Amino acid sequence: MDLTPYVDHLRRELAVAADAGGDEARALAERLSAPLESAARLTLLNALSAAMSDVTRELAPGSVDVRLRGLDPEFVVTPPPAPEPVREAREPVAAPVAVAPPAAEADDGTMARINLRLPSHLKSRAEGAAAEEGLSVNAWLVRAVSVSLDGGGRASAPGGRGKDSGGRGFTGWVR
């Protein structure tokens, strides 16, 4: 997502507001517009990150990550894992039992913090699994816990995302 049009629009609005103050205000606005560009970009990134956090809460166990590539953010959508396909059995099998959806009052949309202590070998495996799917460790753990509690199945989406072509990337939240 290119933030340049939004930053340019803000710069134009500042110039229009400064025109009302005369030549001195116009000159001040011109001097301030360049330093304000980085602050405007950071503010837009914070707003986008907060919005994607809300979207991720609604998609759980799926997620939406905001990644910074150069000066512009990129959104990475990870859908929830697909249910396992039903395999045909040679003998009649009882119909699968439907899992009741969680109660509405169970998910009020608030986030809670938890400190999790893992043995170092498990931490490295979790980091590796998250990286293979292109997720932050936090997003991967949220999905794994959600899948585990909401009826089992696999904790990772099929065909997960790997690292970008350069093997570098940043994953996480901007606040």
From TrEMBL:
Residues 151-175 are annotated as: Disordered. It comes from the Bacteria. Pfam families: HicB (PF05534). This is Toxin-antitoxin system HicB family antitoxin. It comes from Streptomyces globisporus.
